[in-house]
Write a structure and sequence with these properties.
The longest helix is centred in the middle third of the chain and has 29 residues. With 1230 residues, the chain is of the alpha/beta class. A hairpin with an 8-residue loop joins strand 9 and strand 10. Helix 33 packs across helix 34 and helix 34 crosses helix 35. The chain contains 40 helices and 46 strands. The strands form nine sheets. A seven-stranded parallel sheet has the order 3-4-2-15-16-1-17. A seven-stranded parallel sheet has the order 31-32-30-33-34-29-35, with helices on both faces.
């Protein structure tokens, strides 16, 4: 293509250079802020060549990627936008790179093979299509990669109608590095069920489901990894490898040969060599990538001729810096520190640096083959001017710098005035002004703030909408641009929200649906775990057992009780069974004993008493008059807009709930629950700002000096632009400072006081306090809690806690306790990398040094106080480069606080400590934790300890040091495996089992209720609580004492097969989870939805599953009609009724009259008996029973009523009904 045909006005200066190659690179001047991305999209749109954008760092590359997305959003033909990130591991580190990053790299490299015609092409795409933007970093381009030919051979294009052999596909997935899983959730997993193939290919947002008809691809669909339900059909998919190292016969042979040549014959004894020789993946094997391929290639080798590079200003210096880091790491891992020859080398064997990475000269030489432009800000002699006017004047030299300059109290209002003034000037000069924001909420805030400054705005759908607008118009558009720019000739001005409100950190959130599903489901239930049967008590799970009753085979859940009694629970009754969350030391119940019923009745009584008290307190608060705060006015909106993160959905809901409480006339008493770093402090800040702006004082109470200090720093930073005076009261303040602070609080000079329990002492007086924020109330003493109660009468109370509160408990207490749960974790790009390994001095030293050398801090958890000082000496000898501190619970409180505060202030970089850090403060620079003898900890505690790291944008590491595998108990192994697989920061909510559940519930309900939960288990307790509160609510108007409705539990025997066949769902945990969900279906709509889901996930349903779904529907009808027992077989059925059934008596009379003697009513058993039927076929029998039950309904309106709410129908003389038992004690099944 001739460069002279380029039409975009930005591209005119580039035309003479687009066909040039070689050095020196043409320099592009005056590319401020987001103009680099705008230029790139304009060029890519008209220049049909791959365009490679090179950034200096991964964070900048991510920002650039988002900016390119914004500027290209309006293209009619979507512009392929690809990412090629660097590994996040350090050079020569014995850890494999993060899976999703590898997926992005492979996906991009494969796309390049298609551009050059060497890779397989999916139908509907062209091999020669070379329009693409690739965003990468200097470091990523220095890594050597697998050869393009190897990658092209391992890419499989699959489309509808293709022939695909199941065995061949399974083999392909194995060779391409996919892991087999029971259900596909993460990239690189696959599952095969009958003719359905689920797999999660690299570079895809969602996994793919292929349904075969014989060997033909019938459908391809994406599906949701959380719900496992199909979403959108797709025409085809590229199945790509999951690793850059492919373990096959050829690559393993190459590795073995080159490894021995490089390291000598004795290297054959290395664990790495032995494992890889067997085709077993090893952590860090990617750092030996060149040994698997002869030769390895580079990213440049993948690019077609004519590709173009745009280098950001700092890209070339970043190449030199990375080369220096590689050399330094190579030196570090190869030798002990000077003078300490007895220390181990930091790693084992490693390749020469230039085998794995390009040198700077080779990198520059590779670029000579392409057209390259380098960006440099400011005037440059001989540079190419693109006529940008630079960043807008009121924020010079950049948006971020200006906002920092405007950080003082006096400048805040003038900053907004300057923005408004500049916009008005630009309007007069005919500029089209674009104000970019990231969210709809921020868009509305910005428009409101500007409206307050007499600036009216319009909404634009995208960037092109701004460019085509009228000169002088001002637009607000959703987009992610870090810095703004102006171009006088084109007449456009772009101002990002950061230029007005400060830098905001983008946070991606993981889908948190079904956070409690793991708790309620049986997905992690292991044989030997404790379970609770609602009617028989606590027993031990014995697995799923197949049993035949006559000729009918079904599955039963086995529960073992005291004296080795066994209970076989039909799978349709799993709604009566739940996991027990509590102490493993609790005694098993005895089958048939009255003790369990007494325990339940005692618990129910205590729950009712507590529910009465909660309802009473709620009514008391409703009748109390408190201060009514204002709503979200423009000043509040301006403050909210300066929050430096994007609000998570849960956080936004919590903030809204708090503001509504404060605007109410009743005093607020709300609990906000969320893990450390989830954003509770911002909720408190919004409330405090609202209170101070309305003339009230605020007290913020923290349990420790360090937490108080941290809150003080956070509040000071956020409130700096506003005239708000803050005070800190803690032991770190001198008596004189405290005396002055107390004076300012009493006379009203200070608006916000932050401190420990010092705030509760008698000499603390507020002039006009309106809000009390309490952080971790459960960590205060009894006397402090009593003092807090005195505030609750008139002051708004906001309580914060980091202990997980299960959402089910929250829902059960709706209406009697104001709780907000922030369960959405603020995920940056990288989750916590968890490594389970034996204690090894070399690896411990390497882990500590890696963190220290990147400027971070390390927790080393050693939970033996008696010899912790001795171990500290050993650790100091092992890592003399470290500054070491020691902290444990037997220290005096003041000494411990000083140690922790010093660590917080980064005075030392390794803290050797006990579990005292479990509920520690948020230390973003601590990103490595090493847990000694991790097998001694419970799963929930390990998760909480691991959560001390991973609070920043850096990759966090958790090393779990354990004894050799043969010394680990099976339970310890399972706990560690579960933790290793859960890398998410927010997984604590889905892991909220055992002690965390009880602790969390205790925070709301009190210690006595925690004991009740231990007796009956969390789920059953939760059900009782929900029933009690519902009963109180329903009887509140009539002032009646609620009576617990008798629960109808039908005993049903249909003599049909009702199970999930092993070959249909082979994984026992998946079957258990499905059985549990099916048993809990409570409406016809839910049953249809489950049937649809099973068809989607597993294919055509066997008759036994269809029967199971219909049985659940029949059980639901029996519960509604209050039928105690239903027994049906080939010749007829018997239906035994409750004394107060919910049936239509006229229907029974008609059935008897029309039955001709084949339908009778047995007065002794109170049962309707249907005889002389031809129900040998299961389908006929089930349909007849469904029709019979439908006919017995009292009226159409009762169709959807649940049994407990169905109105009792008085029994007639002819239909006297007597209650009968439903437990077959001989079979001991229910």
């Amino acid at each position: 293509m001739d460069p002279q045909t380029l039409s975009h006005p930005l591209l005119s200066p580039l035309k003479p250079y687009l066909a040039q190659r070689g050095s020196p690179f043409p320099v592009l001047c005056d590319l401020p802020g987001g103009s680099f991305a705008w230029l790139a999209t304009a060029l890519a749109r008209e220049w049909p060549r791959p365009l490679v954008l090179v950034s200096s760092s991964s964070s900048r590359a991510e920002a650039l990627y988002r900016e390119v997305l914004f500027f290209s959003e309006y293209f009619k033909q979507p512009l392929p936008l690809l990412s090629f990130p660097a590994w996040e591991t350090m050079p020569f580190e014995p850890l494999s790179p993060f899976g999703p990053l590898v997926g992005e790299r492979i996906s991009t490299l494969f796309r390049l093979t298609q551009m050059t015609g060497s890779g397989p092409v999916l139908a509907g795409t062209e091999s020669g299509a070379t329009h693409a933007i690739i965003v990468t970093t200097a470091a990523a381009l220095m890594q050597r990669v697998m050869p393009a030919q190897q990658l092209a051979q391992h890419g499989l294009a699959i489309k509808k109608g293709d022939q695909l052999n199941l065995t061949v596909m399974r083999e392909f997935l194995h060779l391409s590095g996919y892991r087999h899983a029971s259900q596909v959730v993460e990239p690189g997993e696959f599952a095969i069920r009958g003719g359905i193939i689920d797999f999660f290919p690299p570079g895809h947002e969602n996994p793919v489901r292929i349904e075969l008809f014989g060997d033909e691809v019938e459908t391809l669909r994406q599906f949701d990894p959380v719900t496992q339900r199909s979403t959108d059909p797709i025409p085809g998919v590229q199945a790509l490898p999951t690793s850059e190292v492919l373990l096959n016969e050829n690559t393993i042979r190459s590795f073995r040969t080159q490894y021995r040549q490089l390291f000598g014959g004795q290297a054959a004894d290395d664990t790495l060599y032995k494992e890889l020789s067997k085709g077993i993946k090893v952590q860090g094997m990617e750092h030996f990538l060149p040994l698997f391929y002869e030769p390895a290639e580079t990213f440049f080798d993948y690019l077609p001729e004519g590709s173009t590079f745009l280098l950001e200003e700092d890209a070339l210096p970043a190449v030199a810096q990375f080369e220096q880091e590689v050399q330094e790491r190579h030196r570090l891992v190869g030798a002990p520190p000077e003078g300490r020859s007895g220390l181990p080398r930091a790693t084992g064997r490693h390749l020469p640096a230039d085998a794995l990475y390009l040198t700077l000269p080779l990198w520059q030489e590779a670029l000579q083959r392409f057209t390259v432009f380098e960006s440099r800000h400011g005037a440059e002699k001989g540079g190419v001017s693109l006529a940008f006017d630079g960043v807008v004047d009121f924020i010079t030299p950049s948006a971020a710098a200006a906002v920092n300059d405007a950080g003082g109290k006096a400048n805040k209002e003038s900053t907004l005035d300057r923005v408004a003034h500049h916009i008005r000037t630009a309007q007069k000069n005919g500029f089209r002004i674009a104000l970019t924001v990231r969210t709809i909420g921020q868009r509305e805030r910005l428009r409101e703030v500007l409206e307050d400054h007499k600036i009216s705005t319009r909404l634009a759908p995208h960037w092109e909408g701004v460019l085509t607008g009228q000169p002088g118009s001002t637009w607000v558009v959703i987009g992610d641009v870090e810095q703004g720019f102006a171009h006088g000739r084109i007449g456009v001005l772009l101002i990002p929200e950061e230029a007005i409100f400060g830098r905001r950190t983008r946070r991606r959130q993981r889908d948190q649906r079904y956070l409690e599903q793991l708790l309620a489901s049986f997905s992690d239930l292991q044989e030997g775990n404790l379970v609770v049967h609602a009617d028989h008590g606590i027993g031990r799970f014995g697995g799923l057992q197949p049993l035949a009753i006559g000729t009918i085979k079904n599955e039963f859940l086995l529960i073992s009780y005291q004296d080795e009694d066994k209970l076989y629970v039909p799978v349709e009754n799993l709604d009566r069974v739940s996991k027990y969350s509590g102490s493993e030391e609790i005694a098993l119940d005895k089958l048939g004993s009255a003790k369990w019923e007494k325990t339940k009745e005692r618990t129910r009584k205590k729950i009712l008493e507590m529910a009465h008290e909660l309802v009473h307190l709620q009514a008391l608060r409703a009748a109390t008059e408190g201060f009514t705060f204002a709503g979200a006015d423009p000043l509040y909106q301006e403050f909210a807009a300066t929050f430096p993160f994007e609000e998570t959905p849960d956080q936004a809901q919590a903030i809204e709930a708090v503001l509504q409480d404060m605007a109410s006339s009743r005093p607020m008493d709300r609990l906000v629950c969320g893990d450390v770093g989830f954003g509770k402090t911002e909720v408190a800040l919004r409330a405090a700002f609202r209170a101070v702006m309305d003339g009230k004082q605020v007290a913020v109470l923290a349990p420790t000096t360090i937490l108080a200090q941290q809150h003080f720093e956070t509040f000071s930073r956020r409130l700096a632009p506003y005239p708000v005076k803050l005070e800190l009261l803690s032991r770190f303040r001198s008596p004189l400072e405290q005396k002055q602070a107390l004076r300012r609080l009493s006379n009203g000079e200070a608006e916000i006081a932050i401190g420990t329990h010092r705030l509760l002492q008698s000499d603390v007086h507020f002039k006009d306090i309106g809000l009390l924020v309490v952080d971790e109330e459960q960590r205060f003493g009894v006397s402090h809690k009593e003092k807090l109660k005195s505030f609750r009468a008139t002051v708004d109370i906001l309580t914060l806690t980091a202990t997980p509160i299960p959402r089910t408990l929250h829902l059960a207490m709706a209406g009697v306790r104001d709780i907000s749960i922030i369960a959405t974790p603020p995920l940056d790009r990288l989750a916590i990398r968890t490594i389970i390994t034996q204690y090894d001095r070399t690896q411990v030293r390497e882990a500590i040094l890696r963190e220290i050398y990147r400027g971070g801090q390390v927790y080393y958890l050693y939970n033996r106080v008696q010899d912790i000082e001795k171990f500290a000496a050993q650790l100091g000898e092992l890592v003399p480069e470290a500054k070491l501190g020691v902290a444990h619970g037997q220290m005096r409180e003041g000494q411990l606080e000083r140690i922790m505060f010093s660590f917080y202030q980064q005075e030392f970089n390794v803290l050797l400590c006990t579990t005292i850090i479990e509920n520690g403060v948020d230390i973003p620079s601590a990103n490595t934790i090493i847990i000694h003898r991790a097998d001694k900890f419970g799963l929930a505690q390990l998760h909480q300890l691991r959560g001390r790291v991973g609070r920043s944008k850096h990759r966090a590491y958790a090393y779990l040091l354990v004894p050799p595998a043969h010394n680990l108990t099976e339970d310890a192994r399972k706990r560690l495996d579960a933790l290793e697989s859960l890398g998410d920061l927010g997984a604590g909510f889905s892991l909220a089992t055992h002690d965390l559940e009880i602790r969390g519930a205790g925070n709301i309900l009190g210690d006595e209720q925690s004991g009740q939960i231990r007796e009956v288990g969390f789920e059953l307790y939760n059900q009782m609580l929900r029933e009690a509160i519902q009963g109180l609510a329903e009887n509140a108007v009539a002032q009646e004492k609620p009576e617990r409705p008798e629960e109808i539990i039908p005993n049903i025997s249909l003599h049909v097969s009702t199970h999930i066949p092993h070959d249909f769902v082979p994984d026992v945990h998946q079957r258990l989870t499905l059985y549990k969900r099916i048993a809990e279906l409570n409406s016809a709509e839910e049953i249809l939805e489950m049937r649809s889901e099973l068809l989607d996930r597993f294919g055509p349903l066997p008759e036994s599953i269809t029967n199971l779904l219909r049985l659940v529907g029949i059980k639901r009808s029996c519960r509604q009609l209050r039928i105690l027992k239903l027994d049906a077989g080939p010749k007829g059925a018997s239906l035994q009724f409750h004394p107060q059934p919910s049936v239509n008596p006229q229907a029974i009379i008609e059935l008897i009259q029309q039955g001709g003697g084949a339908v009778i009513f047995n007065h002794q058993t109170n049962a309707l008996v249907v005889k002389n039927r031809l129900w040998d076929v299961e389908e006929v029998r089930l349909r007849a029973l469904e029709e019979l039950l439908e006919r017995l309904r009292p009226d159409p309106a009762a169709h959807n009523k649940v049994a407990e709410k169905a109105p009792p129908v008085a029994a007639t003389g002819k239909a006297r009904i007597v209650h009968a038992g439903h437990v077959d004690k001989r079979r001991k099944s229910v």
